[in-house]
Give the backbone structure.
Amino acid sequence: MTQQPDTGPAPFTETVFTPSSTTMAHEHAGLLVSEFGEDGGEGFIVAGTLDPALAVAAIRHYLAVEVDWADLTWATDEFVRDLADGSKAPIAHTTVFTTREDGGWNAAFAEASADGAVPAVWIVSPHDPYVIAARPTEQPRPLPA
C-alpha cells in the first residue's frame, strides 16, 4: 500500500458573495454600509443603491449610531468636510464582493451583468491610485434589467 503525501490544507478559494447585515458594519433603510480602512479613513461603501444621496444619508446614519460618542462630532465633521472639499467623492457602480483568506472581503467594480454584481456607491478619494486604475466608465441609469 502506497502512502499519499500530506498536501496540507486545501488552498483558499476566493468566492463571490452578496453583502448582508452580517458582512457589513451597518444597515440603514435596507442599505448596507461599511468602511474602508480604519475608522472610514479611506472611505465608505454602501451596497444596495446607485444613488449617491441615499448613500450619503446611510453613512450619516451609520456615523450617528455606530461611532463612539466621543468620536462622533469629529467623524461626522470630517466626512462632511471631505465631501465638501472634494477629497472624497461618490462613485456609483455595480460591484462584486469577494471573500478573503483572512475572513475579510474585497470589493471591485464590475459590469452589471457580472455574477454576483450588486449596486453600490463608493465614497472614496478620487485621487487614490487604486480608484484611478479601477474606475469604470459611467453606467447608464437606471441599470438595464
